[in-house]
Amino acid sequence: MPIVFSTDPDKEAPQKEKKTQWPPSAKNQLARIWRDSKRRAGKTVTVVGNLNHDPATLERLCKELKNKCGAGGTAKNGEIEIQGDHRDRVAAYLQSLGYKTKMVGG
Questions:
Q1: In the list 43, 50, 59, 103, which could disulfide-bond 32, CB 3.0-4.6 Å?
Q2: Class of residue 21 by CB neighbours under 10 A (exposed 0-12, middle 13-18, buried 19+)
Q3: How far from the centroid of its chain's Cα atoms is residue 69's Cα?
Q4: Over 80: is that where the pLDDT of 13 sits?
């Protein structure tokens, strides 16, 4: 059982968790943004790739992008997919977070 409080100086009290910076290390990353419709029955999606985050961070970023674009989407295989062509909105939001962005493809 963890110690919650103790007056004994030999026992350490638990450390408070530090708040993590959001988004983590955005300045050092180049987000590649492209439109794709292959393997999706002709439906267009905006894909954000080349991000080095853990799955939980990708899910959180995906949720924020879906809210900004008013569309559905998912985070899988290290990429974020937003339904529809929202490249400009996605790029603007990622730039506001500190990411460098590059439009890829046509």
A1: 50
A2: exposed
A3: 14
A4: no
The whole-angstrom separation of Cα 46 and Cα 79 is 10
Encoding tokens for residue 50? 């080349």
Question: How far is residue 82's CA from residue 4's CA, in Å, rounded to a whole number?
Answer: 44
- Residue 63: C-alpha distances to residues 57, 70, 74 (Å): 10, 10, 8
For the record, the structure tokens of 17 come out as 């968790």
CB 46 within 8 A of CB 14: no
Pairing between strand 79-83 and 45-49? antiparallel
End-to-end CA distance of the chain: 58
Q: Determine if the pTM surpasses 0.85.
A: no
pLDDT in tens, 29-87: 999 999 999 888 889 999 999 998 889 999 999 999 999 999 999 999 999 999 999 99
